[in-house]
Write a structure and sequence with these properties.
By secondary structure, this protein is an alpha/beta fold. 44% of the residues lie in helices and 14% in strands. The protein has a 7-stranded mixed beta sheet, with helices on both faces. Helix 1 runs parallel beside helix 11, helix 2 crosses helix 3 and helix 5 crosses helix 7. The longest helix is centred in the middle third of the chain and has 15 residues. The chain is globular and about 45 Å long. The protein starts with 7 loop residues before the first strand and ends with a helix.
Length: 257
């Protein structure tokens, strides 16, 4: 499909929801919120190109390309008028879907969102890529990125960092260096400022108040640019809201259905 094999899973029955994960995250990123969503809804999870069990072709990616991947899969599986829920890079994909596929989706939910990747997280992501190139053990790469992704309170829980390391080490489908760099290159090129106002799809924004990758100020910029009475919900925690606040995130999404 669209020149690649895309891995996906479908759970539950009912009104359709599509979950689109962020940079360097596969479909298991949503594991804490799938069960409550799938109780009364049909939920599609996928691995974006460059991650998990989906192909990682060594050629340029773009956010538009990944949006086309999502919608091609949506059409193949006959997911009619779904809600698209994207987190971080997934929210960039959802923005593009909201702009170009407005007649095919019911609503977009932009979680931990931005209109462009700012320089500070870009530097951090590049540094992690360099650790990958140098074959630095995964444990140290996780430890290096964790303070950017999670709040201090979350990481202060007993054994939390060690649990994150074990989860990464036990992943049977770790991201390749090619997939990492191609996704990052796509993310670095993304800039929705010129066209956010074109989005007519109903939009809802969820922001973590301690998010330093996608700061609250950036979420407010997205809200203002889209307009159309776009709602912004601010919740505790850092960048990985579905991991830190799964119950809160699931409750918000279910209220939108």
């Amino acid at each position: 499909m669209n020149d690649i094999h895309i891995h996906y899973e479908v759970q539950g029955q009912g009104a359709p929801i599509i979950l689109v994960a962020g940079f360097s995250c596969d479909h298991t990123f949503w594991s804490e919120i799938v069960k409550p969503l799938a109780q009364n809804h049909k939920v599609l999870l996928l691995d974006n190109r460059g991650i998990g069990q989906t192909d990682s072709p060594n050629k340029p990616y773009s956010i538009e390309m990944m949006a086309d991947d999502v919608m091609s899969l949506c059409q193949k599986l006959e997911f009619h008028n779904p809600i698209i829920i994207g987190q971080s890079m997934g929210s960039a994909i959802a923005q593009d879907i909201g702009r170009r596929y407005a007649d095919q989706v019911k609503k977009i939910v932009l979680m931990n969102t931005f209109n462009r990747l700012t320089k500070l997280p870009e530097i951090a992501f590049e540094a992690i890529g360099e650790l990958h190139r140098l074959n630095i053990p995964l444990r140290y790469r996780v430890q290096s990125i964790a303070p950017w992704v999670f709040s201090s309170d979350f990481l202060s829980k007993p054994d939390q960092l060690e649990n994150l390391v074990k989860l990464a080490e036990q992943n049977p489908y770790p991201q390749s260096l090619i997939g990492y760099q191609r996704q990052l290159d796509a993310l670095k090129k993304f800039d929705s400022r010129p066209w956010l106002h074109e989005i007519k799809t109903p939009a809802y924004i969820i922001a973590g108040i301690e998010d330093i990758i996608a700061p609250l100020s950036g979420a407010k910029e997205v809200q203002k640019k889209i307009g159309n009475n776009t709602t912004l919900d601010i919740i505790p925690g850092g960048h990985a809201s579905p991991v830190e606040q799964p119950q809160k995130v699931a409750e918000i999404i279910l209220k939108l259905m």
